[in-house]
Amino acid sequence: MRGLARSTVAAVVTTFVLALPAVAAPLVFPMRGEDGFFEQGPPDVTASSWILYDESSDTVLASRDADTRRPMASITKIMTVMIALERGDLNDEVTVSQRAADIGAQEIGLVAGETVELGWLVRAALLRSGNDAATAIAEHIAGSVEGFIGIMNQRASELGMENTHFANPHGLDMGGHYSSPRDMLIVARQAMSIPQFAEIARARVMVFPDAPNGTARSATNTNRILNSYEGIIGVKTGETPNAGLTYVGAAERDGRRLFAVVFRSVGQRAHFADAIALFDWAFDNLRIHGTLVSGTPYQPVAARVSPSPLVVEAGLETLLHASAQGITAEASTPADGDSAPTPSDVVDITRHPDPAPDSFLSTFTYWLGLATGVFDD
Predict the structure, then answer these.
(1) Of 30, 79, 142, 164, which is most buried by a Cβ count within 10 Å?
(2) Active-site entry in 7, 48, 57, 77
(3) 74 catalytic, yes or no?
């Protein structure tokens, strides 16, 4: 009777496995139609290229043309401000040049010849997206805009930004000035790891020192969803005729940090809408579950009657979006693959004096039978 039950279970398992159209391929999420599973993909967004990344698990959740080179607009200033923090002293006095004052477009209103601390220029560049402030930063750090551009490209190379080339420190349209969603994700993560950068990026307003003639200067962060979307902590917006709307956003909830980078979103404030849609999808539907099994093959300490011990082949590491499929509601804790399990007391087992399973299928059948009660004594 037991042999018949075991054969039945084996037949069912074999039929299920053979029915999978892509059994040799890894299980991915979102589920692929060719795998025979329901497909729950990312939302439709207007951006031409984008990437969504979970920093907590170091996982790209979804992307579209993430390595395509496109004009980047003012998200350029993420690199500009990061270099200023890495190489400069925020208390440095910076004398504003005529070139910086006359740069045009988005400005904080710098006046040629005035002296401003570098810390204020950094804030104006990141919050107000001041092109005049970005230019003044470049001239102060490198002695010239051209010298600073060289530093920007050197830093991009060091970070592995293979699809990026800077031609200016502010992001105005210019030949040879481009990046990609994946590359901007790299520099945004690096910049947000600097406490001063992260603090400035999440500030909502800034009161800048008055102009030499007494004119008051202030700014509201161009990252408008800082006030409206739960968890937003940065980082930078951009818009030019050639680039369209661009945005690098970061959001945190329940100890989990996500980044969304969108290039060329279409429509009024579409870059914010696109990022929100991606964040909502990830926060509401995807939870990353870490390593299930890792390490060297494990052999139980408990003695068995059978001569060959049951060996669980390890080295399997996977990420499961389990809760997205309703499997579990709680996040699991990744197993530590470097430490061996604590040995238990040796116990003689005489309940099942059968030979140990000698294949994956027989092993799976054996344990399935135990779980369902088919093989109980």
Answers:
(1) 79
(2) 77
(3) yes
List the chain domain ranges. 1-29+287-377, 49-285
Strands (E), the chain: 49-54, 59-64, 93-95, 115-117, 205-208, 217-220, 232-240, 244-253, 256-265
What single letter denotes the amino acid at residue 166?
A: F
Q: What is the per-residue burial (b if ≥16 Cβ within 10 Å, else e) of 343-374?
A: eeeeeeeeeeeeebbeeeeebbbbebbeeeeb
From the candidates 49, 56, 63, 129, give the one annotated as an active-site residue: 129
**Among the options 74, 97, 180, 265, which is catalytic?**
74
Nearest Cα to 283, choosing from 254, 305, 307?
Answer: 254
Q: What radius of gyration, in Å, describes the C-alpha atoms of the chain?
A: 28
Q: Which two tokens stand for residue 187?
A: 């520099």
**Residue 137 corresponds to which tokens in the numbers above?**
């930063």
Which CATH superfamily, name and number, covers 49-285?
A: DD-peptidase/beta-lactamase superfamily (3.40.710.10)
Kindly state the tokens that stand for 59: 């996982």
Q: pLDDT tens, 309-344?
A: 444 333 333 343 433 433 333 343 444 444 444 554
Helix, strand, or coil (residue 7): helix
- Rounded CA separation 99/113 (Å): 11
3-state secondary structure (DSSP) of residue 71: coil
Cα gap 196→83, rounded to integer Å: 12
Q: What is the pLDDT of residue 41?
A: 82
Close Cβ partners of 266 (under 8 Å, ≥ 6 residues apart): 46, 47, 244, 245
Q: What is the pLDDT of residues 148-195, one digit of tens each?
A: 999 999 999 999 999 999 999 999 999 999 999 999 999 999 999 999
Q: Residue 66, SS3?
A: coil
Q: Say if CB 83 and CB 61 are below 8 A apart.
A: no
What is the 8-class DSSP label of residue 126?
I
